[in-house]
Specification:
The chain is built from three helices and 13 strands, in the order H-H-E-E-E-E-E-E-E-H-E-E-E-E-E-E. By secondary structure, the protein is mainly beta. Strands 1, 2, 3, 4, 5, 6, 7, 8, 9, 10, 11, 12 and 13 form a 13-stranded antiparallel β-sheet that branches. Helix 1 packs antiparallel against helix 2.
Length: about 350
């Protein structure tokens, strides 16, 4: 059918280009007809049959909207003993221990949706079963996520009395203060970079449809922000009722720190790509699913310490530790826009 269309267009354009010019004809019309004839006879046939074959390079790319990156992380907190002023007989009103804050630990899932794109290239295939091709691709993505809190105690923030505190006859203890506590937070940052090198193996379904299995070795570079905060109010006296005030009855301890960690990792991945034979000129579409596991090569442990130097008690310290799991996992679904480069003549 394509050949018939091309022959018809060629004959009509050839007749138009070769006929004698009339007085009413414009001077650019023969030149335009010659250019159109060149396009139909030389360029269009090549693009009309631009499906990939064994000798073709295939370049591909796609936006990525359905992708998840996840791993677990552990948070651990421990504070030193209080060394500064405190109520002489703590058992009277104090309900927190003698440390800067209560020790705590937890393990949490830390995950992020990824928004980015993938660019890659497939080499011409070898004349072997499964038509093996080498391929390389690079994915760059930005995480869309919120922070995950670990080893959390209370709700650390700005210290304040609870509602009604300081105006009633109730004595406010250390544990009752709003804003006391401890937390370690972890949050993915961008850009993430994943670069893979692998082999593509094809399984034909019919003359135009096929499935590609693409195992690869992948290098990953990821970034995570780790932050920690500890807030404590230390009771100084036994005031009660309306005589209580945060400034006079409590000594405030507020310690915080943060780090940005960059992790380098390697690991295997497997992509399964379905090529349905949908083509438009040199372009075609395919859908894929990919799974990827990576092992962190850099130190996964982040240690932070801050001491109450501003409060005049340099031995009152908070010690935080964040440990990222060595293994992280990425999964994605999407479609590739494939381009098979073709000469124009």
């Amino acid at each position: 059918m394509r050949k018939l269309v091309n022959r018809f267009l060629s004959s009509r354009l050839l007749a138009f280009a070769s006929r004698p010019a009339s007085r009413s004809a414009r001077p650019w019309q023969p030149a335009a007809a010659s250019c159109a004839l060149f396009f139909v006879t030389s360029i269009l046939p090549g693009y009309a049959s631009a499906g990939s074959n064994e000798s073709d390079w295939i370049l591909y790319g796609n936006p990525e909207f359905v992708s998840v990156y996840a791993h677990t992380g552990k948070g651990n907190f421990r504070g030193t003993l209080l060394t500064g002023p405190r109520l002489a007989n703590p058992s009277q009103v104090v309900d927190l221990g003698p440390e800067v804050e209560e020790p705590n630990r937890s393990r949490e899932l830390i995950a992020a949706f990824l928004i980015g794109g993938t660019f890659g290239a497939l080499t011409p295939s070898l004349d072997l079963p499964s038509r093996p091709r080498m391929f390389v691709d690079v994915n760059v993505a930005v995480p869309a996520t919120t922070e995950v809190q670990l080893a959390r105690t209370g709700n650390p923030g700005q210290l304040a009395f609870p509602d009604g505190g300081g105006t009633s006859g109730v004595q406010i203890g250390e544990r009752a203060l709003i804003g006391r506590g401890n937390a370690i937070s972890a949050q993915h940052q961008g850009p993430q970079v994943h670069a893979g090198l692998g082999v593509s193996l094809e399984v034909p379904l019919d003359d135009v449809q096929l499935i590609r299995f693409k195992p690869a070795a992948v290098y990953s570079r990821t970034i995570i922000d780790v932050a920690a905060i500890t807030v404590r109010g230390v009771r100084l006296n036994t005031d009660a009722g309306q005589n209580q005030s945060l400034a006079d009855d409590f000594r405030q301890i507020r310690l915080s720190d943060s780090r940005r960690e960059v992790y380098h990792a390697v690991g295997p991945s497997l992509e399964v790509e379905y090529v349905p034979g949908i083509e438009w000129g040199p372009f075609s579409l395919s859908v894929y699913a990919r799974g990827h596991a990576s092992y962190i090569l850099t130190d996964p442990v982040t240690r932070m310490q801050q001491c109450n130097v501003e409060g005049g008690q340099p031995l009152e310290c908070a010690n935080w530790k964040y440990t990222q799991d060595r293994w992280a996992y990425r999964g994605s679904l999407g479609f590739h826009i494939n381009w098979t480069p073709r000469p124009l003549w």
